[in-house]
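Hello K.,

You asked for the raw outputs rather than the summary table, so here they are, unedited. I folded two proteins back to back in the same session to keep the settings identical. This is the first:
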Amino acid sequence: MNSTLLISIELNPKEPWNEILKAELADLGFDAFEDTENGIKAYGSEEKTNLDSVLKDTILADKEIDFTYKLKEELIPFQNWNAKWEADFEAVFVDDKLSILAPFHDKSLAKGIVIEIQPQMSFGTGHHQTTWMMSKAMLEETEIFGDVLDMGTGTGVLAILAEKIGAESILAIDIEDWSVENTKENAQRNNCKKIIALHGDVDLIQGKVFDLILANINKNILKSHLAHYIETLKVGGKLYLSGFFESDVQEMIDFTENLGIKHQKTFTKETWAQLCFIN
């Protein structure tokens, strides 16, 4: 890929539509996001065109919302974009239990468990609220999980955390080639030996069993996957879900409990939500 498509969107009002648009654009294949004073910037592959039409036909048309937006598209050299993202990358701290740092960060900032991620994408680094909540839920567990599934692994940060808190084996799956390669690189960077990263979808878990399933994707994909997750979840095993909004919590609880497992607790952060279930 020689160039990256950058779209800049000004929103009025900005909240909460900036987060809604990030989630929608992630579904369309945009893989990095940056908040601006008046909206967001989204980065994707250069073949994505006619984004104004996409916004009107597939995003705004489905929502009863009252806001205005301005859209700007430009192609930027991929390496220049990556360097800019790296320069803007900030350390992430989950309370005092976990630090997610880039190689160039001052390691004296670290608190608790340290995970080093080479910054390339915004989702999966811990910057996004859903990844932060998933990490927090994992850190609050008092038991050590044996076999873990990290579905939609992104940069592998949750898989890496699972190994660092004692998991015996971790299967990390993603539909994106770049994500699988990035997970492998980050696992090696963090001296992880128990993570297997595979390119593919939910069919890869058929016939396997897990003590903990981590699924940080989006609501519609989660609902299509849930029966498969529960089939592979051991009795007493736990399922963590995120990638949806606080307004979707009851819908997701009802849908998941109807499949036979029990809701335990809920985390929320800045309009996003995370749910914990036990089989």
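The second followed immediately with the same parameters:
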Amino acid sequence: MKWITREHPKIDRIACPWLIKNFVDKHAEFIYTHPDKVKEQAKKLNAIPFDIPDVEFSHYEDKCTFDYIIEKYKLTDPALKTLAIIVRGADTDRHDIAGQASGLWAISAGLSFNIKDDHELLNKGMMLYDALYSWAKHLQKEKHTQNPVDHIFMDVYNKFIRQKSSQKKTPDWVKELKQIIQDQVDANLNLTEISKTLDINPSYLSREFSKHFNNLSFGEYIRKRRIEKAIELINGNSYSLTEIAYLTGFSDQSHFTRIFKQHAGKSPSAYKKDIKSKANTNS
């Protein structure tokens, strides 16, 4: 069977072919084309369109196309469930839901930057997901450092952090973290890297984050701040929506549109149209 999607893949459009080839149809053929031509070419070539809006194989709520394929074909391998969370975190900029998500995004973005031929990129990307699947299947419990002294040190450190934070109503790291997010909301932020900057254990930071940030997870808060910035830029009327998506840290236009609609209740284009309509009415 032929499958077709948008050109210049990064996460879902590499992960899904790997999943299909290994667990659905080993003879599957994949086609990449211009976003505006996917549906037209799908009909012409009798191919299944995927990872584009308004088709069956796409994103649903907070899940990505990789999740849908697992559900559609009733794939029950526990390793795939683990891999799905990593893919979802990387593909939807929610690096807080899986520690490996930020690494997958970084490597995938680098591959996409270095390799311009989509099918060559797919072949190289297949090796990446082979490795991730092997880790999820056989190596999850292994650690690079097995020294028990390290674990004792971390336990003592965590207790010290908890004791120190309980002495203040608003910890200093909260103020510093808010400033980091404000200054770098368009960047590829993740708690693991931020924890190094703040000199705080990443597990503690992940656990305590929502207590100081409106009961939102790190990913939810980042998306909220990005949409708030996007609204400011739309109101300023100085940038196109494509430029605004880039300036607010979204990996592609469709992801930006989907998240914007979740927060603002309408698409960016509809929001911008309303702004122009109000401006014309008042003039």
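The longest strand covers residues 2-6.

Happy to rerun anything if the numbers look odd on your end.

Regards,
P.
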